[in-house]
Amino acid sequence: MDPLTWLSLGLQLAALCCIVGALLLYLLRKVRVAEVLPTDGAKTVLVTSVDTALGLQIATYLSDRGWRVIAGCRSGGLGARLAESWLQAHVAATPEDQQPPRLATLELDVAREDLLEEAARAIAQHLPAGEHGVWAVINTAGCGGRGAARWEAALRGNVLGALRVARSFAPLLAAAAADHPHAGRLFYIGLTSDTACESVSQGLGLGAGQSLGALEACETGAVCAAARWGTWGAARALRGALRARGVRVVLLHAPDLSALDVYAPPAQLSAPSQPASRPESPSSDISGASASASCAVTMPGEAAEYSAKVLPAAALRLLEDALTTPAPKDSYYLKLKHDSWFTRMPSLRVGH
User: Fold this and answer.
1) Where is this region: Disordered (predicted)?
2) What is the pLDDT of residue 93?
3) What is the C-alpha separation between 62 and 85, in angstroms, rounded?
């Protein structure tokens, strides 16, 4: 054969080897992901509060992605009603051949020891057969500390609440870690945009002629910073204490959100009005985003429309990756992007 024929055969052989190598890498990756992801009976996640928009967004996103979500909330509160409305609409819209979302609300308050203990017992008693713990706990409970009357509540809910959550649910996390090497993860909201030491120190340098409102805003910033840094320190201490039990403590920093944004309730989008006759079709404008796209949840009687859109799709995917990766980092940064990248969270309607 002439040299050109040999060259052609060589190029074809190289291309064939590249194709085979790519297929092998793909299959190896699929096997690795299958080993990392939890089994169907072990995908239980506790979100400690859906009374915040962030907690509601995380809970509905993970539920739509196939996780079994337990949503902590105040009894009869707005978060509980919105979560139940979202679940009813999505269960009704799920085809018969697909698994419907799994989300259950549970009364929980991180500031009350009795409710935390009752919640831990209830979760342990109602776990699926063969499951002995929860895969992860995501603590979204807390408050921003606006106003002098909220200072103590902010410190109790954020710092002491973080310690109470660890003490109450560490046994369930350790039990899950004993069943699966990648289970047992405890997530806390870490630092926010208003916890920079520079902004606090500049505010504390206000002159005597500054208004009382400016001084109160400065003090509020100082309280927010103290609460967030306190949570950061508590998480670092818990990380060392719980490592021996197989529990991994992870901080979720929100550098583009203030503490008030992180703990804000779901935002009302429209005044009470008659609900739509059926849910809108899910939006598909975000590649790779969850199917928990925009929809209107119908409830009888007068209804108000709410939104729980806080994080973009990329941040939600990063959170889910932190839930499943074999070796999670100590910290993740949930950054915001342009509005076109936001996951369009459900527009939820709740009866008055």
Assistant:
1) 268-289
2) 87
3) 16
